[in-house]
Amino acid sequence: MFSVFSRAGRRGRVTARLAAAALASGLVATGAISGAGAAVADDGVREQGGASATISGLETYGEAVVHRDGQDEKVSAGLFRMTVDGGGTLQTYCIDLHNPTQTEAKYQETPWSGTSLGGNPAAGKIRWILQNSYPQVNDLAALARKARTGSLTEQDAAAGTQVAIWRYSDQADVDAVSPAAEKLADYLHKSARSLTEPQASLTLSPQAVSGHPGERLGPVTVHTNAESLTVTPPAEAAAGGVKVVDKDGTPVTSATDGSRIYFDVPADAASGSAALTVQGSTTVPVGRAFASDTRSQTQVLAGSSESTVSATATATWAKEGAVPALYARKNCAAGGVDITATNKGDEPFSFRLMGTRHTIPAESSRTVTIPLQEDQAYDFTIKGPNGFEKRLRGVLDCKTASAATAADDGLTTQTTTQPSPASVGGTGTAGTDLAETGSSNATPVIAGIAIVLVLVGGVSVVLGRKKKASSSDGE
Q: Is 61 helix (H, G, I), strand (E, B) or coil?
């Protein structure tokens, strides 16, 4: 899938939109705050845990025709292949018809709430299609009998399944070129029933904890479909006497679903932070979404080999003052990023984002939503006492391109005679070859806007070291 619109035109719109958002955001830059035990967490979307993968390109596909604004545009339709970090292979379909696929883009398993599926009432029907068609149903003869398609090839099965998905994910008026694939698409589209979102392959909750030396910080609860996971504490933390333990104080080296893990911090430990990693191997549930931290089309899982999954949790500790812990999650329903901040210290912790000051009282936790525009790249660094730093970055991609650009005018198509299987979708009037695809020129634009957000905006953090200072800041 790549844009039916001119990439140059779309790039100009995105540039103007993001530049305006950066200038209007009202972020206030401030200097870095120094302290002992400085630690930086660079999270992005990978903070959520699960499988991380790199998209390789189309694996099995046929052709389809998208009917839009009185024009017929030919696209490729079928299965992508992804290579999982650490080992494994995923098969996915696209749920964002008109967006480009970035070459070798990195993807992360993501909750539906962080993608266009979160606001799509038909998301559950897409999962039903995935579970009841190719490649989950690899007996093509049986699938053909059920859908009354006649002979059905793998290419027909992949194309028909993708077309049915697009009708729900993008509300697209689209038909498969192959008669057999079209019959399959019609059968799947009409038969689909709503199913619930599948559970993640691996998550940790919460993803960040805080407290004082001499305490067990946590618990961090493991949620997974893997039979067993390896727990790896950071070497530098172990050297300082910090241990990863269970509720009884017994060192932990493995975990299963429901395990509760703690950071055991010695009473004489200097202020600092540490991270533990939980990793294992499992099949990722069909229907899980995969999103990129670049502007690359969102995918939904159709099949998984035994694949590596991992997740990280962090701990921060200090003897006095504010002791923050933060993690972020995209919230498409609210149109922004939710930042959950916990303060286990004895003084308030305050920070400023997007022109708004947020204060987390001592011994409390709050979630604040940072509003962003669709397609907006964000790169925030929140700083706190004792060298605490938390970097949050990514791209808010909550809508399909057709929905996001529905109000835009002056859109044009751009075609070429060189087909490329590196991306499903693509355009060109019916009877011509596929449109230009592959890598997108949007990447440097998005990276540039992210830098603009940091340079123009930045993040101001107000330390709650002194209660008097905190209370005197009267915003």
A: strand
SS3 264: strand
Is 94 within 8 Å of 107 (Cβ atoms)? no
Q: CA–CA separation, 436 vs 4, rounded Å?
A: 10
Q: Give per-residue burial for 175-209: e unless 16+ CB within 10 Å, then b.
A: bbbbebbbbbbbbbbeebeebebbebbbbbebbbb
Measured between alpha carbons, how far apart are the two ends of the chain, in Å? 47
What is the pairing mode between strands 52-68 and 254-255?
Answer: unpaired
- CA-wise closest residue to 380 among 475, 462, 443, 451: 451
Tell me the one-letter amino acid at 197: E
Which residues partner with 314 through β-bridges? 208, 275
pLDDT, one tens digit per residue, over 195-205 is 999 999 999 99
Q: Are 56 and 80 in contact (CB under 8 A)?
A: yes
Confidence label for 238 from pLDDT (cuts 50, 70 and 90): low
> Cα–Cα distance between 205 and 315 in angstroms, integer?
12
Phi, psi (rounded to 5 degrees) for 408: -75, 150
> Which range scores top for mean pLDDT: 7-16, 136-145, 396-405?
136-145
| Cβ–Cβ < 8 Å for 435, 426 | yes
Interaxial angle between packed helices 179-191 and 140-147, expressed in degrees from 0 to 180 and rounded to the nearest 10 = 70
CB-CB contact of 294 with 103 (8 Å): no
Q: What average pLDDT is seen over the chain?
A: 79
SS3 for 256-271, per residue? CCCCEEEEECCCCCCC
Q: How many CA atoms lie within 13 A of 104 on its CB side?
A: 0
Q: Which residue has the tokens 């998209």?
A: 55
Between CA 302 and CA 298, with CA 201 as vertex, the angle to 5 degrees is: 45
Beta partners for residue 307, in sequence order: 282
Mean pLDDT computed over 91-118: 92
Distance from C-alpha of 300 to C-alpha of 128, rounded to nearest angstrom: 12
Query: Measured on CA atoms in the order 95, 101, 104, 106, is the torsion positive or negative?
Result: negative
Q: What is the pLDDT of residue 294?
A: 80
Closest by CA position to 147, among listed 136, 162, 158, 157: 157
Q: How far apart are CA 355 and CA 459, in angstroms?
A: 9
Other beta carbons within 10 Å of 227: 10
Name residue 170's amino acid. Answer: D
pLDDT for residue 427? 34
Predicted confidence at residue 402, as pLDDT, reads 57
- The structure tokens listed for 76 are 């490729």
Report the DSSP pairing between strands 39-42 and 388-395: parallel
pLDDT of residue 71: 94
| Lowest-pLDDT choice from 117-126, 164-173, 389-398, 457-466 | 457-466
